[in-house]
Amino acid sequence: MKKEDRRSGKQNDDWKQLEKEAAVICQDFGAFCGYVIQNQVKLAPKTGNIGKKDCFAINMLLQGREEYDKPVYPQGKYPLIRFFYYVAIKYKILETNGAGNRLEQGRHYVFFHEASVWEQYALFLVVFLFDGTFARQDGSWYTDNITELWSLYVDKLMEWFAAEEPWVDGKRRRLQENMGLFRDCLYIQVTYLEELSLIRVCGKSGPEDDMWKRWWEIEARPLLEIVSDIYENTEIEIEEDELEDSDGSRLAECYYKAFADRFLQGTEERLSEMFENASAFDANQTIDLEVSLRHTDCVRVIRMNLDDSLYALHDAIQKAVSFDDDHLFSFTVGAGMMKRTYLPSEAMNRNTDLSVATLLGELDLRKGQKFSYLFDFGDMWEFDIRVLEIREGEVEMPEVIRAVGEAPEQYPCLEEDMELQVQVSDQVHVSDILASIEDDLIRDEHAALTGRRSPCEKEPADTLRREMERIVLENPDRMFLFMTAGMREMLSELLQMEWIDGSERCTLAQLYSFGFCEFSGEDQDTVLVPEAIREVYASRMKSGRKYDKIVETAEAFLRHCGVVEMEVLYAEVKGFLKKRISYDEFTLLLYSRLHYFGGFYSVLFQETEYMSSYDPEMTQRILEERGKPENAAFAYPGLEQVCDKELGGFQRVMRDWKEYIHFNLSVDWQTAERLARQIPALAASGLLKKEEVLAAYRELLQGMGSRVTKKAEGLIGELCSSMPLAVRRGNTGGKYTA
To answer: Which pTM was predicted?
Structure first.
């Protein structure tokens, strides 16, 4: 045999071995689909997920199974089942039946299972690498934050592989969870890396060893070198307009072809058709939608075309109930990990949001399916929508074919005499408005505007007024640092000469105190805006929006940690949001928004500057407690964990707890808010251990004259289990270092 033939034979043998490794995930997926269909698995009504017993049974069929010995865990605790569930539904390999309570063979079921191992493997690979939507889950471990940053996590991971080249010498490498962006995500990725036969896990640490520095000892599999090479060296060109309003399918499709070409080595590839067919629908069809306004007897049935957009549906609903289309809105389709939110472009701020430009046909709706529509994020008009019929034909425009019940008034409490007229006046000057404000108040306003921790008592009030006038008129960007979203929105309406709701007098008073407007008329029913203000600010309103997220994130971190060094807070927020802001701007932002308007305190302790949720006396007590030797292991939770709790289970439990305090102790909402936040923040600050937290809650209830009921015990238990990690003092693995 010739040398070339022997080399070719060896390459074929190597490729066959690689194919066997790639087949692992394909076999597991086949086992998943087979069980679901043969056993007619029922789906949970609210989430659409597979039940605990069926998840346990499916898990036992998988080669990459979870080591559970009882069927007590939901679908979210089985990473592979979640992944298979998402791929199967996304690409219509499985589809829900008409009632939406079972999964059955989809239109691509046979097509997919007849494909080669390499085609199937390429599909699984690109979903893992480029479509992090499958990582979404209602709960504390699989959050929208991970979904939004998935591409960054994968990039970081693949960069590490490219730099380390673990396949070169065959030695084992250690992956650690504290590798920058890996925190809170690597533990998700390792399961899929092993199932895809890219790595083999030889050893790992557990949460009981060190919850902050989990690690995996890995061995690279031969496929990893090929995948890393394609990932690093394949250039995909996609136009911006192709990615707009996309859920990542276009990028996945392009990379699928790149991987398939490499794996198939010139043989025919067919599965790319699934990407095109996933959103295909018959445009020559109409759909009848029953739209019901919650808590009313108002029902409208709207007929429109499948190639009409969600925005067209929004417009049709507005006309059907005679509302003024002057607020933001959203549509929510699906449940659980398949839930999608569709928003107008001005409201989209996450890559998990989709656009209302999406066509109804692209939603793959079926008869009997339900979804929801929310109009006006303030007044919260909620509509339930049900698909009545899909049939052949088309209509010229959306039309109401049946109406039941009267539509409610959109603004039942708004009367003409409650509106304030807005005028621009050359006679009003900023200096005149500031001169009319009392000296003590002007000192406080000056402190907020300039970012001082306390009012300036030494300078004459008139000097402060002149400085404020200069800042107001010459530095709009600096002004927007301290202006809340409500103040900016009100200023925008003033500049556009709109009628103002009289109930907004509180925000108007804040603007007045800085020289933006003045009340006039016999009944104070006219708002005068200085011409100078309109000239300077009319074209600059959007520049203030970028600061809102910074404030919200800092506030969430403060509420969970109680007291935080200003420099640590700056580093955490800036690193988490990836926003450019200087330290001086950041401190001004927090001083004016949180210290002045938000009820937080700026405290100097041992020459270090802190922002605190408590008064200075309590803040000093907390910092002294943290400085004790026995508390040396105190560490802040990461912002990913804080936002995880803030947006997930912790927020829900806190809401239930506040409602319990309010309705059982008959206190006002402000007091309920204070009582609800007080103990969790103390616990997160490191002052209380879990046992002390339980005792503090019971003491709180007894002190307010309420016995500790079973309901209260249950809520307290949920609060403790969902609190930030900083509560577990002594097990945090070391102090925070910025």
So the answer is: 0.55
